[in-house]
């Protein structure tokens, strides 16, 4: 990398310019795709975008802040010495080393970076399992109302009655849609909800003095399921899948016994199939004294049609950021309420909202002894993701019962359209098992020697699409899992299908140029393993690198 010149501009990197056949630009920019150095490479430690009053000097030093310069204060005050005492010797002695930029430079930097990213607002986001769907703008508008957006979790209850009513109403609809008895609203993601559900199960078993050690998880489970069970102190054992991609009921029943605390089953499962024997599974598990956890991440496919409570399920998390269209964000803020059966409801975490007459109150630790004597404790600092609750409730109310039923119908229709439009060029291992649910699953079986699922995923980037989920579920070799969701029109599905068809043909014929993909992206193929194993989390000046 070249050092920035005085204006912060520096010549583009050869790596960035090499993408398009032979075209090199002076700037490194390609058309309207602007090349962007790191902020440390364009910012100068001597620049500051804001005017701050100079703080009182500490032991004769000036501020060690963004500018890094030691500026003596014109009128040293005794305050400075007092502050120094309160810092207890933790005063920074070196400049902080943050890059300084003017406001327009800062805004442009992050806007340019955002344009190199892909988002649900740019196009179809076909990740399987994750349900990346449109975030309706009505939800955003509601969440930004000052009465919701400006709340603080420590406000007195009397001043947040409307917010508590929203939590209570959303809880009501989640219970109604799932046919369950109660819901814990505070978990902050699907995985967090799983932990909440398993802790409820553990508390229920402990309450009856039944210390069981094993949680059974199907082979096709999302990685968070075994991780949750292990985190809660259980030994995890796998249950095999049948050749058509569903839980093997006979194998499950054979394994049940007095040491099994629970089974965790995803329904619809991660092969995109409905577990038709769910009721029989629940009955067998209950007969053996264990409890049923359902991973409800795929509720999108059955909402308005199937109530998990009718299938004998004891606990199920709902990812509001999947089924109910709240934003995923960069790993958050999610929300994973957990619906609970009558058997588990008493063990739900604190705090929770309770309606007394016309008023809402938050049952907290401390006032919990009579209100919730069996609660296993708390999951989070406060009562959950308020911003997600408002969005999810807006989504539910604006769709209504008929609209939610249509959501699952259209999600399943779109996935089947995807499956049937591609099964002649891509191997679809469970296509013979009948229609899929919300997602279509393909394998790498028909690819020529040496061509991988990774090559196909990277080639999709050149076509302007975010890749599908790859290498998951693990029960399928070189898996590609595509979930179009109900939000996509036939035109957008057809465009994606055309792109994937052409890449699949290239993969079948052994087109070696696939190894070069992506050729048109701002960056080429990165060493993702190295990046994950040895992440560079702090900026190093390239000139100081050895
Ligand atoms: C997304 C997902 C999870 C985890 O949910 P997070 O909200 O990402 O923590 C668990 N199981 C399945 C099947 C999922 O798709």
From TrEMBL:
Query: What catalytic activity is recorded?
Result: N(6)-[(R)-lipoyl]-L-lysyl-[glycine-cleavage complex H protein] + glycine + H(+) = N(6)-[(R)-S(8)-aminomethyldihydrolipoyl]-L-lysyl-[glycine-cleavage complex H protein] + CO2
Domain Aminotransferase class V: from-to ranges: 212-329
Q: What EC designation does it have?
A: 1.4.4.2
Q: Name one GO biological process term.
A: glycine decarboxylation via glycine cleavage system
Tell me which UniProt keywords the record has, alphabetically: Aminotransferase, Oxidoreductase, Pyridoxal phosphate, Transferase
Q: Which residues form the Glycine dehydrogenase C-terminal domain?
A: 410-508
Signal peptide range equals none
List the Gene3D superfamilies hit by this protein, alphabetically: 6.20.440.10, Aspartate Aminotransferase, domain 1, Type I PLP-dependent aspartate aminotransferase-like (Major domain)
Q: Which GO terms describe its cellular component?
A: cytosol; glycine cleavage complex
Respond yes or no to whether keyword Ribonucleoprotein is given for this record: no
State one molecular function term (GO): transaminase activity
Q: Where is this region: Disordered?
A: 1-23, 50-88, 508-527
Query: Which superkingdom?
Result: Bacteria
Q: What class of enzyme is it?
A: oxidoreductase
- One Pfam match, by short name? GcvP2_C
Record SUPFAM superfamilies? PLP-dependent transferases
The reply on keyword Kinase is no
Q: What job does this protein perform?
A: The glycine cleavage system catalyzes the degradation of glycine. The P protein binds the alpha-amino group of glycine through its pyridoxal phosphate cofactor; CO(2) is released and the remaining methylamine moiety is then transferred to the lipoamide cofactor of the H protein.
Which protein is depicted? glycine dehydrogenase (aminomethyl-transferring)
Q: Which organism is it from?
A: Croceibacterium soli
């Amino acid at each position: 990398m070249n050092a920035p010149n005085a204006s912060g501009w520096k010549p583009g990197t050869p790596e960035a310019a090499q993408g398009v056949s032979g075209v090199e630009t002076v700037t490194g920019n390609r058309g309207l795709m602007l090349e962007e150095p790191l902020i440390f490479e364009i910012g100068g430690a001597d620049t500051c975008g804001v005017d701050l009053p100079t703080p009182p000097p500490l032991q004769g030093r000036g501020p060690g802040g963004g500018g890094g310069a030691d500026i003596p204060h014109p009128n040293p005050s005794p305050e400075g010495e007092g502050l120094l005492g309160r810092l207890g010797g933790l005063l920074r002695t070196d400049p902080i080393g943050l890059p300084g930029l003017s406001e327009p430079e800062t805004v442009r930097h992050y806007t340019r970076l955002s344009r190199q990213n892909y988002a649900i607002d740019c196009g179809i986001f076909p990740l399987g399992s994750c349900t990346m769907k449109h975030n309706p703008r009505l939800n955003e508008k509601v969440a930004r109302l000052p009465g919701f957006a400006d709340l603080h979790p420590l406000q007195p209850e009397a001043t947040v009655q409307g917010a508590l009513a929203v939590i209570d109403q959303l809880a009501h609809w989640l219970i109604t849609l799932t046919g369950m008895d109660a819901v814990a609203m505070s978990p902050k993601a699907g995985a967090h909800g799983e932990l909440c559900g398993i802790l409820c199960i553990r508390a229920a078993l402990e309450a009856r003095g039944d210390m069981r050690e094993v949680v059974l998880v199907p082979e096709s489970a999302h990685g968070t399921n075994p991780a949750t069970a292990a985190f809660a102190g259980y030994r995890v054992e796998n249950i095999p899948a049948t050749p058509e991609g569903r839980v093997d009921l006979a194998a499950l029943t054979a394994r049940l016994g007095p040491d099994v605390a629970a089974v965790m089953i995803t329904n619809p499962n991660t092969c995109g199939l409905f577990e038709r024997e769910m009721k029989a599974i629940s009955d067998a598990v209950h007969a053996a004294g264990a409890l049923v956890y359902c991973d409800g991440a795929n509720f999108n496919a059955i909402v308005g049609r199937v109530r998990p409570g009718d299938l004998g399920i004891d606990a199920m998390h709902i990812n509001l950021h999947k089924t109910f269209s709240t934003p995923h964000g960069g790993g958050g803020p999610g929300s994973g309420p957990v619906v609970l059966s009558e058997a588990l409801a008493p063990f739900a975490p604190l705090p929770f909202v309770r309606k007394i007459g016309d008023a809402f109150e938050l049952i907290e630790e401390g006032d919990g002894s009579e209100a919730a004597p069996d609660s296993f404790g708390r999951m989070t600092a406060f009562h959950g993701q308020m911003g997600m609750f408002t969005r999810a409730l807006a989504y539910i109310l604006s769709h209504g019962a008929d609209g939610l039923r249509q959501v699952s119908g259209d999600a399943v229709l779109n996935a089947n359209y995807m499956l049937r439009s591609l099964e002649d060029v891509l191997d679809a291992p469970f296509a013979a098992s009948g229609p899929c649910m919300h997602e279509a699953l393909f394998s790498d079986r028909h690819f020529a020697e040496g061509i991988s699922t990774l090559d196909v995923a990277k080639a999709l980037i050149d076509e302007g699409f975010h890749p599908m989920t790859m290498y998951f579920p693990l029960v399928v070799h070189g898996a590609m899992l595509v979930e179009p969701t109900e939000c996509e029109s036939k035109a957008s599905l057809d465009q994606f299908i055309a792109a994937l068809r052409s890449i699949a043909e290239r993969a079948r014929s052994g087109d070696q140029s696939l190894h070069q993909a992506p050729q048109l992206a701002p960056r080429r193929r990165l060493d993702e393993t190295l990046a994950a194993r040895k992440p560079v989390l702090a900026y190093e000046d390239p000139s100081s690198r050895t």
